[in-house]
Specification:
Number of domains: 1
Helix content: 40-55%
CATH architecture: 3-Layer(aba) Sandwich
Order of helices and strands: HEHHHHHHEEHEHEHEHEHEHEEH
Distance between the termini: 17 Å
Number of helices: 14
CATH class: Alpha Beta
Structural class: alpha/beta
Largest sheet: 8 strands, mixed
Bound molecules: guanosine-5'-triphosphate, magnesium ion
Shape: elongated
Length: about 325
């Protein structure tokens, strides 16, 4: 079942049932699912084409090979693909697949089983809560921050943005633009200053003003850039020193269009920093939405959000069942 935004954030109270009305909230969930499907239309089209080309008259090696190719093409990754095909073969051998509907239903179930469990919520229950956004260059960190801030504001939370990407000249400006758009203050210093100092200021400011959530932008980096990874660890230490237990979330952005390469980068990145979840961005730009399966399965991390466009509203809550349905169902 699609989660509403107030369910995405832990620490946001549910709207008054009488005020929202059960029907209205169901309508909201359906709307979210519809928009997720729109965002995944390229992936769905490809999946559909490939799956409808598979003839189900004989469950033989050919058929399983075709399914395997379909999943590999969709970037589900070798491990997940092998596991899914095995489950499908077992189901067929046990007589649980006799028609196309059962085939699709079983495929859905097997794909859903590939997702790592874990906590899909984003914890904003602290005063203030700190969300740190990390990832490789250009994967969508700053855009995602604008979108997250927008949704938090919609849920009635006050948000402060910290411009701790002091590395790239235009980065501070870019975050300031998002701040203006969503109506959140941005704490910044000049280009080239110490990101730790920016974060320190941001948290002090949030505390003195009673701001609910601080979202920290960081410079893009590769796990191989040792000084930059050290800098990230320092940022985390500065945060933890001011607020024990923070950052409460460290979200890793992964660009879905970079496929298996992005997956490798993400794995190494998450090994270096304590990541609490993934934001899978740019799903609208790829037919290979199966990368969500590979990332979750191979990284063992929950995907918490997906990006399906460049606009403020183009962020979706992630739910494995919905995601797989949106990818497979017409
Ligand atoms: N289509 C699409 N584009 C996106 C999405 N998310 C981000 N982008 C675009 O990707 C580009 C890079 O996004 P940024 O948010 O600047 O990425 P970043 O990780 O902050 O980049 P650096 O700070 O340079 O490391 C921009 O052109 C965004 O508009 C998405 O979900 N879909
Ligand atoms: Mg950025």
């Amino acid at each position: 079942m699609t989660r509403s935004w107030h369910e995405v954030f832990k620490g946001v109270s549910a709207p008054d049932a009488a005020e929202a009305g059960a029907e209205e909230s169901n309508e909201g969930r359906r709307g979210l699912f519809r928009r997720l499907k729109e965002g995944l239309s390229k992936s769905r089209q490809h999946m559909h084409q490939n799956l409808s080309a598979i003839m189900l008259d004989r469950f033989d090696a050919d058929l399983w090979e075709q399914l395997e190719e379909t999943l590999i093409f969709a970037d589900c990754g070798v491990d997940s693909t092998v596991a899914v095909v095995e489950r499908m073969e077992t189901a067929a051998n046990e007589g649980r697949i006799t028609n196309r509907e059962q085939f699709i239903a079983q495929l859905e179930q097997s794909l859903v089983e590939m997702f790592a469990g874990g906590d899909y919520q984003i914890d904003v229950s602290h005063e203030p809560s700190v969300i740190l956004i990390v990832g490789v260059n250009g994967t969508g960190k700053t855009t995602t921050i604008g979108k997250i801030a927008y949704h938090l504001r919609q849920e009635g939370k006050s948000v402060l943005l910290a411009a701790a990407d002091t590395f790239r000249a235009a980065a501070i400006e870019q975050l300031s633009e998002w701040g203006k758009r969503v109506g959140s203050p941005v704490v910044k210093q000049k280009h080239g200053s110490d990101p730790g100092a920016v974060v320190f200021d941001a948290i002090s400011s949030a505390r003195s003003k009673g701001v609910d959530v601080v979202v920290v932008d960081t410079a893009g980096r590769l796990h191989t850039q040792v000084p930059l990874m050290e800098e990230l660890k320092k940022i985390r230490r500065v945060i933890a020193k001011q607020i024990p237990g923070a950052p409460h979330e460290t979200l890793l952005t992964v660009d879905a269009t970079t496929g298996q390469n992005g997956l490798i980068q993400a794995r190494l990145f998450s090994e270096a920093v304590d990541v609490t979840g993934v934001v899978l961005t740019k799903l609208d730009g790829t037919a290979k939405g199966g990368i969500a399966v590979a990332i979750s399965h191979e990284l063992g991390l929950p995907i918490k959000l997906v990006g399906v466009g460049e606009k403020l509203e183009d962020l979706r809550p992630f739910d494995p069942v919905d995601f797989v349905k949106a990818m497979l169902e017409g």
